[in-house]
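#struct-pred

JT: dropping the chains for the assembly here, can someone run the whole complex?
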Amino acid sequence: MGLKLRRKVAVIGAGLTKFMRRALETGRELSFYAARQALDSAGLRFNDIESVVISTAPDAFDGVHMKTEWLADGCGSFHRPYLRGYVGGGSGVFALIQGWYMVASGMFDTCLVVAEEKMSSCQPHPQGAFNTIFDHTLERDLGVNLLWIFALEMNRYMQVHKLSLEEIALVSVKNKKNALDHPSAQIPKAVTVEEVLASEVMAWPVHRLMVSPTTDGAGAVVMASEDVARRVCEKPVWVEGVGWCLDSAFWTNRDLYYPDYVEKAAKMAYEMAGITDPRREIHIAEPYDPFAYKELHHLEGLGLADRGQAPKLLAKGFFDRDGDLPSCPSGGLLGVGNPIAAAGIMKCCELFWQLRGEAGKRQVSRPVKRGVAQAWGDLMQVGTVIVLGV
Amino acid sequence: MKDVFIIGVGVVPARPLSPDVSYRELIFEAATKAYEDAGITNKDVETFVAASEDFNEGVSIFDEYVPDQIGAVLKPVHTIGGDGLMALAAAYLQIATGGFRIAFVESHSKLSNLLTPEHIEEFALDPIYFRNTRLDPKFLAGLDMQSYMARSFAPCDAFANVVCAHRKNAMKNPVAGYPASLTPEDVLATKPVATPLLDGMCAKPADGACCVILANRDVAEACKRAVAVDGIAFYTAEPHPDTWKWGCATYAELCAKKAYKMAGIESPENEVDLVEADDRFPHKFFEHLEALRLSKPFEAYKDFANGKFSKKGQVPANLSGGHLGIGMMHEATCLYQLAFAVKQLRGEAGEAQLGKVDCAVVQSWRGLPTQTGALAVLRRWG
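RK: done, full complex below.
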């Protein structure tokens, strides 16, 4: 980036539905509930909103072509402009990046950002839909699913850094425990490393309790220009930096032990935020954790730990809620749930609440002025990063 | 104030079938042409936007397959689930933040891979209220056309004339996939799709790819052939058919209001030199012209018959051939029309060239069963 940005943008409201396995509500209804909460939290009404961003991952989950057209009125896009930005699993955090550029452009003063996912509509299991993300000529007929390729990546990460399963399992223990304090959480639980390792092996070395669940849910935030934010909000949370990066679709040609795309996205966001030493200047992190090893992988990509060192820091309590750099104090995807795009927004909502001191029992003990949220997706290929601060 | 400019376009000739190339090869060709047209390389681009829909691609999370063939590996790339003009708007907004100098927009079509495209469209209908009717979504177009006819008293041959004119226009557009010399009788003799809509009135699918490169003022000033994006807008009107306002295009009205205001256009009939509107059905073309305030409500068909939208008329429309003449490529056709407008503004449209073109309007619609569209106002610059 490196150019002078025209406008500051703030997050002024956030809302989240309960994350659950089989919601009775339609996707439109889930979107409405989250949008309504976010508006209430900002003290605004639908009529105050000038633009909308709708985020959702594959259309195949809901089985609806051009899904955001279907979701549009539930998200407040009735006689309003909306855009659907799309980077697979990275879409939830990217939705805020898109909300940022909608407002930062000067074209809109307010933007309602809504993310929805209803994975339970996909029968018998969303892994069937995930098979269709693979190359139709080279890979799909192998019957691959996400568990298999992430097992490959986890294996590579463990092999390069000589990590043990116990070190990885600690992520599940931490996040599921943190989620006990989250009112939206789907699978919070006090578990031990032994219980994690005793759970079913899905695809070696991935164990069931190292995997986030399939989830239905929605999240939303309200974003506004500086003028509006200062007028209507006592505690705006500012977008200090954004970054996103997409790697090659030929994932088999990459060394999977390190997420270069996350590093590049983080550098873009840090440069915009003026951050030169992220380990000192970032006080709280919400890295994407659909699998236990991914939180560690991403902490390294975000520059919050040296390569291969995140597991050591985790074992020392560095990333605990009362640690030096709380990571996933929300409970993350492993504890709160993983409605793909909505999971990314959940992470941004957590930063919003933590930075405003409104996270209740989840509030971290250290004073926090700046946090980073990150999501990831596609064929182990995309990183989306946002830095929020007060 | 002019902040965002088009500095390059690249178009692959549209054709009904392309068994010899993959979508990646189509995109690569369009991207290469766009880079050459702009006089830059992929290394100069700071952000990339693509437009595509998973179900049309037969791939979930299709954005995965975008970066390699456009030279965007390990760069900021995202996809817009919308049409090409909406992707253009996303690129425009990013440059307008002040944070980016050059943005790249990609859209393509490989519709020949779809064996039953009507079934894909069916999946866009509400799964609870509409899909179980098992109707081809074109019934919505038929109802809409019926409504337009009832309110305008337009005769059937008015719609057939649009098809003939646009496919004839396509004969002068070297990248059009469906140029033809037809008579209204040829069109009216085709089978009904959803009465009064006939098969010959529906734009036919094509394969192709189009890329557009946008830049900020600093970059554009160094470029001799930049075209200014003076106004841009995208709107959704009533998302579901149960709340549609039939026989008109509210989304296009909303877009026109915003984009004209940005561009300082008060009297579009007198200020716009060329319009490229979505015409995948002829009645939608009329609805769009009316929404753009180029005709009074329900009078576009009369203006069309009087030659107002012909090459020598007051507001030449769809000289590219539009969807009917270029081919229906979902997200991509509007960018073909945009590229055609850019060439007109640069005086490079060959046989189709009007005299001096100062201002062009390009309008898009996401197609059935949506009420979403976008609009761009382009102006000669420099």
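JT: nice. Chain B has 15 helices and eleven strands. The mean pLDDT of chain B is 96.
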